[in-house]
Amino acid sequence: MTFATSTGAWANWTSYNTVWDQGKLSQQWVDESYNEINFTGCYNVYTPKSIDVALWQQIDWGSDVRHDTSTLTNCFNGSGSKSTATESGLPYDSYYFEVDKIAGGCISCTVSVNTVNVDTTLAD
Q1: How far apart (Å, rounded) are the C-alpha atoms in residues 58 and 65?
Q2: Using CA atoms, how far apart are residues 74 and 28, in angstroms rounded to an integer?
Q3: Is 8 within 8 Å of 28 (Cβ atoms)?
Q4: How far is CA 100 from the centre of its chain?
Q5: Which pLDDT score is estimated for 33?
Q6: How many whole angstroms separate alpha carbon 71 and alpha carbon 34?
Q7: pTM value?
Q8: How many CB atoms lie under 10 A from the CB of residue 59?
Q9: In what order do the strands lie in the sheet with 51-58?
Q10: What value does the mean pLDDT of the chain take?
Q11: Long-range CB contacts for residues 60-65, cutoff 8 Å, separation at least 24
Q12: Counting C-beta atoms within 10 Å of the first and last residue's C-beta, which end of the chain has fewer, N or C?
């Protein structure tokens, strides 16, 4: 018997004017050994001004694998300010990120973000 799975993930994607809360998951994308997660124009009313994003590898027949967590702070410096988390050397697979913490762990906090972008192209 043969089983086939389909992740339905896209390589690069962008979302505009989104609100993120702790534990929220992004849409999936297919990583070809390099990924870049960009948050531009972040806003929250809490201190510290930070958002932690954890990279996850989606495993079809098992538990998803958590990779690095990055703390993004620069995107809070104005509407055009960007924070970037990168990781390379990962196997070809589907990935997503989770908002792990906001403002150091404020459970009821949210962050408004002008643009969230995932880019899997190293040469840009």
Answers
A1: 7
A2: 24
A3: yes
A4: 10
A5: 82
A6: 18
A7: 0.87
A8: 11
A9: 29-31, 93-102, 51-58, 65-72
A10: 88
A11: 60/5, 60/7, 61/5
A12: N
Residue 28 reports pLDDT greater than 80: yes
Which residues, including other chains, have CB under 8 Å from residue 60's CB and lie 6 or more apart? 5, 7
Residue type at position 103:
A
The pLDDT of residue 1: 37
**How far lies 7's CA from each of 29, 72, 74, 86, 103, in Å?**
9, 27, 32, 22, 32
CA distances from 74 to 5, 10, 28, 29, 116 (A): 38, 27, 24, 24, 14
Q: What's the pLDDT band for 82 if we cut at 50, 70, 90?
A: very high
Two tokens, residue 61: 């027949």
